[in-house]
Amino acid sequence: MATSAFQRLPGFRDFPPEELALRSHIQEAWRRVSRRYGFQEYDGPPLEPLELYVEKSGAEIVGQLYNFTDKGEREVALRPEMTPSLARILGDRSRGMSKPIRWFSTPQLFRYERQQRGRLREHFQWNVDIVGEEDVAADAEVLAVAIDGLRELGLGPDDFRARVSDRRLLREVLLAVGVEEERLPTAFGIIDKLERMPRDKARATLLKDAKLGSAETDGLLELLDSAGLDAVRARFGDRGAVAAELARLAQYLGALEAMGLGAFVQFDLRIVRGLAYYTGIVFELFDRKGALRAICGGGRYDRLLELVGGEPLPAVGFGMGDVVLGELLAERGLLPAYERALDYFVVAVSPEQRAQALRIAHTLRDRGSSVAYALKAELGVTKQLKAADREGAKEVLIVGPDELARGCVVAKNMESGGEREIALSELT
RNA sequence: GUGGGCGUAGCUCAGCUGGUUAGAGCGCCUGACUGUGGCUCAGGAGGUCGGGGGUUCAAGUCCCCUCGCUCACCCCA
What we know:
This protein has two domains: about 15-330, 2-Layer Sandwich (BirA Bifunctional Protein, domain 2), CATH 3.30.930; about 340-425, Rossmann fold (3-Layer(aba) Sandwich), CATH 3.40.50.800. The mean pLDDT is about 90. It is elongated. It is an alpha+beta fold. Strands 1, 5, 6, 7, 8, 9, 10, 11 and 12 form a nine-stranded mixed sheet that branches. Helix 5 (about 135-150) runs parallel beside helix 11. It has helices at about 15-35, 50-55, 60, 85-95, 135-150, 165-175, 185-195, 200-210, 215-225, 230-235, 240-260, 305, 320-330, 355-365, 380-390, 400-405, and strands spanning about 40, 45-50, 65-70, 75-80, 100-105, 110, 120-130, 160-165, 265, 280-285, 295-300, 315-320, 340-350, 370-375, 395-400, 410-415, 420-425. The longest helix has 20 residues, at about 15-35. It binds one RNA strand through helix 15 and strand 15.
């Protein structure tokens, strides 16, 4: 492949107009849905102090940071996720803000890792968060936004589903099964990886690392596989702590059901999420076929704002990346064909009409229309029409000596080919 | 970080076991068509065969290195 002297950095994308149109298609849908739910848009710096991520996000993210030392000897990182920045921004000003705070953003995020399908070193991620509301209704609202973001792009219940769980419930279930308190993080880690692990390995790991008995392990695995609230209720519903968590989850699922989004939601105790800061309900959105990576992930993180030095505020939110989503949309034929669009293309039949054509073009632009014309003044009418066609003009205004003499121009509709005359007085 | 596959025109690709001036389709440019686009026809431009080194009389083709892409692992925004 002929290469220019400078190559693009690996894992980064160029966005020529056709590609940018696809990206915008997605981002504009995200924005429409966010605003429909009453969220306000914000942004932060793409470069942050390294330590913002080191303790807060867990080792998983830190190992993949795109970080370096700047000229001021500061350890910095390109942001790998938005939530820590949000926490910092709110830490500075949330005390004076009315709650709940509903904010969204579509930042470009970065990671340093070898790229593969659905994962580059850079992507755009839709972040939606509700801060300052502990009610489970906030959790439901946030998941509803995520689901509607995908619906807005044409995806339905046959295309994707949300798998939801609650870390508090999982914690109580694990305690009930007999996992020791200090083994809980280990057990969480194993369950998070369960689906990517062979059965016997999962079993062996639970036995060894989570220090579970053989019968308990089998019981737990069976429960996780059953993927139903009823199974949990049947086995542990009589335990007060479990029952309380089940009640909250039922309320959550009920809210989504009431919104008419029940078909998209499925309880699944195996959803844990890798990030360390999640504290409650967590969820992930997957394509139905299970062929792609998770499209979206999120959950409740009630301690994070405190951790970065802010007001202790409960929070819930999600991130949805553009790369996997773009793949899914392409697969389903839901990406729009790229086309150029122009309201008018002004043709001067000969250079003598050039000044008049420029005047018309500018008048129309002042009125808000998109207008172009051939920059080379000496092009023939044929070439100008070809150019008009290429640029996607809806209508071509032909400015010629005969028409000018009669005080008008010819307006040619480029789709039908039909022509009509417009008085010059209407165009200047 | 580990392993597999792949790099030929702007794009998609063809080039048999090494053998003359490296091809096709699409796109682009020009003309047929100096006041009417799409369609058609004719012509044209465009390649250090990713880069470097080696083997050979001869390398797009074989070998080594390197860069990039891609898939998987690790991990998972």
